[in-house]
Structure formats: structure tokens, C-alpha cells
Write a structure and sequence with these properties.
Layout lengths: L1 H7 L8 H15 L1 H8 L2 H13 L8 H20 L12 H17 L1 E2 L2 E2 L2 H22 L3 H17 L5
Antiparallel strand pairs: 1-2
Helix pairs in contact: 1-2, 4-5, 6-7
Length: about 170
């Protein structure tokens, strides 16, 4: 309610008006970018709509500069969504011992592609490593089915490893 008051009543000279509401909308969009991406469809269709509005001078929620920033964020998020390690939903009902056997199986397949310091078949070895990551991510989901709790665990894990200097 205060934002509407500042937008409608306070003059531009004192930080209100159109400039205020534009900054408010820009900040809101940036703050909610992940939720927006999850709810508006794939990034390319959103980018196409933004570009159409830019080309046809159609009114938009945000200004042109932010629209281009949003396009960049959407492209980045779309790429991250495609390469993100995902659980194998097919195996989410596995027991912990059965999933551990799956992780061990994937690990053995990785080892088959390596001899000493040499990678025998780079493509296959990388694919098997990614399969092992997926099997481990599946185990994470089996052990902790609650999405919010998993996010907290992952953030704590990132902070721990970051503090150890693993990402520098």
C-alpha cells in the first residue's frame, strides 16, 4: 500500500511517481526471476514475447534496459535447467541399499573407462560420471524427500566447501 501511495501521491521531484514505480517493478522482477521462469513457460517463448514488445513499442511491465537484462537471465536459467543434475525419478522408490548398489554400478562403469592416468573413451567416461552424479542426486532425494530441506542442505554444503576454498 505504501508503494502505491509513493507512486500516486509523491511527486517525481521527491522520489515518487513513474520513476519510483518503474524501479519497484524492476526490483520485483529481478527478485522473482526464478519463480517467473518457472511459471511463464520456456525461456525462448518469453524472450520472443519480450522482443516482440520491444520491436512493436508495446507497453511492458519493465523498461527496455531491464527487458534485455531479463532476456540474458532467462537464457542463463534455461541453460542451467538443461545441465542441472537431476534425480532419476524412475528410482526414487528405491530403498537406500538398492540405490547404493546403483551408485556402485555407475562407479564401476566410470572405472572401466579409465586406465591409470588415461581416459580410454572420454565421451563414455563423461557420460558415466554424469550417470553417477544422477544416481547420487537420486539418493539425496531418497534420503531427504522435502525440497526445502534439500535446498538448505545444499546451501550449507556449498558454504562449507566454499569456506574450504574449493571454488576459488
Amino acid at each position: 500500500m505504501i508503494d502505491v501511495f509513493i507512486w500516486k501521491v509523491v511527486s517525481d521531484k521527491f522520489g515518487g511517481g513513474i520513476g519510483y514505480i518503474q524501479k519497484f517493478k524492476d526490483a520485483w522482477v529481478i527478485h522473482n526471476k526464478n519463480a517467473i521462469c518457472d511459471n511463464v513457460g520456456d525461456a525462448e517463448s518469453v524472450i520472443a514475447r519480450i522482443n516482440f514488445n520491444l520491436e512493436h513499442n508495446s507497453p511492458m511491465l519493465v523498461d527496455e534496459k531491464l527487458a534485455h537484462k531479463i532476456i540474458g537471465m532467462l537464457r542463463e536459467l534455461e541453460t542451467l535447467r538443461k545441465v542441472k543434475v537431476r534425480p532419476a525419478t524412475k528410482f526414487l522408490s528405491n530403498s537406500i541399499p538398492v540405490q547404493m548398489m546403483k551408485i556402485e554400478e555407475e562407479f564401476r562403469e566410470v572405472l572401466e573407462g579409465i586406465q591409470g592416468d588415461m581416459v580410454i573413451n572420454k565421451h563414455n567416461t563423461l557420460q558415466e560420471l554424469m550417470d553417477m552424479q544422477g544416481a547420487c542426486e537420486t539418493m539425496v532425494h531418497i534420503i531427504e524427500p522435502n525440497r526445502e530441506a534439500r535446498i538448505i542442505e545444499k546451501m550449507q554444503h556449498f558454504d562449507k566447501d566454499n569456506n574450504r576454498g574449493y571454488y576459488n
